[in-house]
């Protein structure tokens, strides 16, 4: 087992050095979920916590960063959504607070934002949805990449991590690449490390951490769900695109289908223009993640979750989750060592 741990540590060395952590395990930012308590608990446990800025305004983000810094002196990151209308100010807020790593999510970040973050002393992490974009992001100055498969919870791309890893890992050696999506156990972390990943990012597995402030109803839904319950949002009509989001099926997802059908009918009747119809579809989920995570409305709200939800089996401290992942990876590595003898 000690030899297994040493193997895992060696495979994680580049990622851990980049993050400044004991282990190359990131807790992916989750809007409303990844706030001071979970982020600090992850970082204190030797992982890398990431604050989800979501729709926060700069002063609110500054407050959250300061509160996290009061709970941990260990490194953590801040996840900024590139569509945020005040992206530049949010970058300045992170830099002023001395945040070491900025994660740009939700689309390709403008080159200026990457440059400014780096000039200000932060390391920049970006999401790469395909090899060509991974190369482009490295050229634009990204210091590390995350490749996230469609198994993940929240907003997703169309390609599984299994395929993205094969497409991207062998070709990007200039910067560390972290893998995300559907990872629930340490054996999988080890397998991706062996394929060339620098570390792994998990979201779903951390929702039921004791320190996570998500409503007990939200955590209970995770504890009860199986992998097949975490499905992508369904688009009813190709003229009205729906951004794919993976979450647990509930009354809200069923009502969303009905809502799309009503909107399309009104569009056909001529009582609703195309643009207004698209907006009505997009507005359906406004505030829905907050309702589920904070208020506990897991029937009407949005219960974003990845396919690894079936591997969430108990509420336990973040440190226990990380220790279990690392022990599973080490045991699997030790078995590899034994087989080689
Ligand atoms: C409830 C929830 C909210 C999320 N919110 C965000 C977000 O605000 N920004 C982001 O980049 N990713 C977000 N994600 C994705 C996670 O950061 C992470 O990459 C993903 O959960 C990894 O896949 P996994 O859930 O299979 O572990 C969210 C995921 C979940 C489950």
From TrEMBL:
Molecular function terms, GO-annotated: nitronate monooxygenase activity
Keywords, sorted A to Z: Flavoprotein, FMN, Monooxygenase, Oxidoreductase
InterPro entries for the chain: Aldolase_TIM, NMO
Pfam families per UniProt: NMO
Record flagged with keyword Flavoprotein: yes
Superkingdom field: Bacteria
Protein name (record): Nitronate monooxygenase
Annotated organism of origin: Roseomonas acroporae
